[in-house]
Amino acid sequence: MSAAQLDPRLVGEVIASFRRKKGLTQEVLSGLADLGRTHLSAIEHGERKPTLETLYRLSGALEVPMWVIVKKIEEELEARG
C-alpha cells in the first residue's frame, strides 16, 4: 500500500465549512483558538497543513470534537475518490 498524500486544500475547505456553519469570522475563530489570523487563512486556503495541536485548538474553538472534523475530511476524500 502506498502512502497517500492529504490534500491541504481539502483540509482547509473542511475547516472553513465548520467555521461558516458556526457563523464565525476567521478573526474570531483564530482568536478563540489562539492562532494568528494569517495562519488560519493559510490553512483554509490550503497553503499550510495544520498540526494535530492546531487542529485540536480549532476543534475546541469550534466546539466540535476533533474526530468529527477528521471524519468529515475522510468522507470528502472518499467522495472525491
In sequence order, what are the helices and strands, one letter per element? HHHHH
The structure class reads mainly alpha
The biggest sheet amounts to:
none
Q: What best-fitting shape do the alpha-carbon axes yield?
A: globular
Cα distance spanning the termini: 16 Å
- Classify the helix fraction into a percent range: 55-70%
Number of strands: 0
Mean pLDDT: 94
Strand fraction band?
under 5%
Radius of gyration: 12 Å
How would you describe the oligomerization state of the chains in this entry? single chain
Helix run count: 5
Q: Which stretches are poorly predicted, pLDDT < 50 over at least 5 residues? A: none
Task: Describe it.
With 81 residues, the chain is an all-alpha fold. The chain is 68% helix and 0% strand. It has 5 helices and no strands. It is globular. The two termini are 16 Å apart.
